[in-house]
Specification:
Strand order of the largest sheet: 2-3-1-4
Helix content: 10-25%
Shape: elongated
Low-confidence stretches: none
Structural class: alpha+beta
Strand content: 25-35%
Largest sheet: 4 strands, antiparallel
Number of strands: 4
Radius of gyration: 36 Å
Order of helices and strands: EHEEHE
Mean pLDDT: 83
Length: 120
C-alpha cells in the first residue's frame, strides 16, 4: 500500500532544497518526492514502506527544523473531469487579411487657357 508523507522543512535556498530532495529520494521505499504548499516549504514523499520518523530525523539532522505534517495513504481520489467543448463556430485564429484603406477620389478640373501668351 502506498503511503503519502508530508513534512514541513525550513529551507534557506536552492542548495538546501536540493539537499532535502537528495535525502528524501535516498530513503528506502521512496518512489517520488516533491515540494508542495504555498511557499514550497513542504516535502511530499510517496512510496511503499516509508518510515516517516526516520526520514524526519534525517532531515532535522542534515538540513534543519523539520515537522511531520501528515501521514496517510496515497490513494487517488476520484476527480470530476470537466469536458472542454470546441467552439461552435469554425474560424482560424490567425487569419491574415489585407488592411482596408478607404479609397479617396479627388476631382481635378482642367481649364482650357485661350490666352496667346504662354508665359502667363
Amino acid at each position: 500500500m502506498k503511503q503519502k508523507v508530508v513534512i514541513k522543512v525550513a529551507m534557506n535556498g536552492n542548495k538546501s532544497r536540493s539537499k532535502v530532495l537528495k535525502i528524501a529520494v535516498g530513503a528506502p521505499g521512496v518512489q517520488s518526492a516533491g515540494f508542495t504548499g504555498k511557499e514550497l516549504d513542504q516535502l511530499e514523499v510517496v512510496g511503499e514502506g516509508i518510515d516517516a520518523a526516520v526520514l524526519t530525523s534525517l532531515l532535522r539532522k542534515n538540513v534543519g527544523p523539520a515537522d511531520l505534517i501528515s501521514l496517510g495513504s496515497a490513494e487517488k481520489k476520484e476527480e470530476k473531469k470537466i469536458e472542454i467543448l470546441p467552439p461552435a463556430w469554425n474560424s482560424y485564429p490567425y487569419q491574415f487579411s489585407a488592411p482596408y484603406y478607404p479609397i479617396q477620389l479627388y476631382l481635378v478640373e482642367y481649364t482650357d487657357h485661350t490666352d496667346p501668351c504662354s508665359i502667363l
